[in-house]
Each structure stands twice: as C-alpha cells, then as structure tokens.
Write a structure and sequence with these properties.
- The protein has about 325 residues and is an alpha/beta fold.
- It has 2 domains: about 160 residues, Rossmann fold; about 60 residues, Histone, subunit A (Orthogonal Bundle), CATH 1.10.20.140.
- It is about 50% helix and about 10% strand.
- It has 14 helices and 8 strands.
- Helix 2 links the parallel strand 2 and strand 3.
- Helix 3 packs across helix 4 and helix 5 packs across helix 6.
- The radius of gyration is 20 Å and the shape is globular.
C-alpha cells in the first residue's frame, strides 16, 4: 500500500437494536464491502440468537468476520479484538474490498480508531490464581488490595467489575508495574493511511426501546430458550449476553417465562441507555480530539433518515 493513499474504513456505531446491521448490509452490497464485528458479545460462539448474530445465509451473501469466533473459556478483550480486527481489515483491503466495522462496544471501537496501550500478556497460571483470590476475598476487599498497588485503576473500577479488577491486579503481579502505567505508555495507533468514516446511529429512546422489546420477542420465537438450555452455565463474559441470566433464572424455576422476558427487555433497555450516553459523550469527545466529525442519524424522523442515508453523505 502506498503511503500517500488513504484507505476508507467505514464505522457504523450505535446502541443495540438501532439498525446498524441492516445499514452495514446495505452499504456492503453497494461497495463490495466486508462486515467486521465490533460487538463484545457477538464475538462469542455461545449465544448466536441472543447476541443477534447474522445467520448462515447472510454470511454466505456478504463476507462477515469476527462473529462467533471466540469459544469459552477464552475471553475476548479490547486488545485481543483489536489485534484480530487489524488483521481482518488488512486482509479485506488487500482483496480490494471496503471494511465496514459494525458494533456497539465503545471500547472496541476506541481501541481500533484511537489506539491502545501494549500491555504484556499475563500467564494463564497467574491469572487463574488471581481469579481464585478475588473469589475468596470478594469485590470490596480485592479492590482495597488493588488500591495499594494501582490507585488510579482501583478508583475508577467498582467492586463488582470482577473482570477488570482481576485484569488490573494480574498485570501488576506479572510485570511489577500497574496497568495504569502500561496504559500511559507505548500507545499503538492505527495505520496513518486508514481513514475512518463514521456513521453514528442515535435513535430516540422511545423508538429504540420499542425495537428492543420487539426484537427480544423475535429471539424467543427463534429459539432463544433452547439456545440457553443447551449452553453450560460458566463464569464467563458470554453469560452477560442480553437475556441469558433471566432465561436461566426461569429454567431454574425462580421466575415465570413472562417475567424472564420482561426482565430481559428491561435489562436490554437499560444497556441501550448506557450506550447512548457513552456515544454522545466519550465517543464524540474522542472523535473531536481526532478532528473527525461523524455523520449522526438522530431525531424524530430517525427511520426516514436511516433509509435515505447513502455513501455519498459519509
């Protein structure tokens, strides 16, 4: 690739059920594109229905990458996803196609578009040891322990964020330096010739919530209960896929199926609300700092704008 040539990387970002996948499919058919997943639940193979992964026919029609590629107990992180995404994007560009990165996991998109610190790997044995220590100590006490070696990380992480607390302490135990130190050092940025062109979908809440409720009912009709029943219950991030824990509670006889569905819908709406806040604040600030201006689709005529959106306006 020539140094003076810019290669467009399309980014379609927004909350769950905002229409990202449909827009990506439309763009992909217009420009010989390939779709790259940037959703932290869709990377896992465990719950393709509940994580709203594209079906087999869709994948045959248009190339899709990084959907269902991570199997438990392996854990996907922003760093591991970024590495895979960088490889895939390079492959897609080499084939003369346009990468279309689609997802609502802000930290994944941030790692790709703005760079990420290169943190040394933690040996599996050490990580397992730290996990057991967290389970024995509990969140608050473990966080107090982290405070002594990495105050910055401990302050920003709540006691219940086991994954990041364990990660922070494990990095210190493995390297003798805090994860905050590593995050300040050696920021790995994307290639200068990659030109990110972002479309940010921000539907009004009432319409978004209605779409979320409708989609979950469609998931139930499409076999979500059977999917949960067939998947072992593990201590793994994939278990946080929207609706999994609620349907598991129903299968244990703790709540009715109707209540499980209502709780899953509410949980999904709460998650979407947090995503909207993140994209309107942190994501936009980061893009402004990078002198980029995303195309934003929002407002009362959201769906009409979405249907009218074309590549020339990006």
């Amino acid at each position: 690739m020539k140094d003076d040539v810019k290669y467009p990387i399309l980014i379609i970002a927004g909350p769950t059920a905002s229409g990202k996948s449909g827009l990506a499919m439309r763009f992909a058919t217009q420009i010989n594109g390939a779709i790259v997943n940037a959703d932290s639940m869709q990377v896992y193979s465990c719950f393709p229905i509940l994580s709203a992964q594209p079906d087999a026919q869709t994948k045959r029609n248009i190339p899709h990458y990084l959907y269902g590629t991570v199997n438990a107990p392996t854990i996907s992180t922003a760093a591991s996803w970024r590495k895979d995404a960088m490889d895939v994007i390079g492959k897609v560009l080499a084939e003369g196609k346009t990468p279309i990165v689609v997802g609502g996991t802000g930290l994944y998109l941030e790692a790709l578009m703005h760079g990420i610190s290169e943190i040394p790997d933690v040996p599996d044995e050490l990580r397992e040891k730290v996990i057991k220590e967290y389970e024995i100590m509990g969140g608050p006490a473990f966080r107090d322990r982290l405070m002594k070696v990495d105050k910055a990380a401990a302050i920003r992480l709540p006691p219940g964020d086991s994954q990041r607390l364990i990660r922070a302490y494990a990095v210190y135990a493995a390297t003798g330096k805090s994860i905050s130190y590593w995050q300040r050092e050696s920021l790995m940025r994307p290639p200068a010739e990659w030109e990110f062109k972002t479309t940010l979908l921000l539907p009004e809440r009432d319409g978004l919530y209605a779409s979320i409720d409708k989609r979950f009912l469609e998931m139930m009709a499409g076999g979500a209960m059977d999917e949960v029943r067939a998947t072992p219950v593990l201590e793994h991030p994939s278990q946080k896929a929207l609706g999994v824990q609620e349907l598991q509670a129903h299968m244990r006889g703790e709540i009715s199926q109707e209540e499980a569905v209502e709780r899953a819908q509410q949980f999904s709406r709460n998650y979407a609300k947090r995503q909207l806040t993140w994209f309107k604040n942190r994501f936009m600030k980061k893009e402004a700092a990078a002198s980029r201006k995303p195309r934003i689709i929002d407002g009362a005529n959201y769906h009409e704008q979405l249907l009218a959106l074309n590549l020339n306006s990006i």
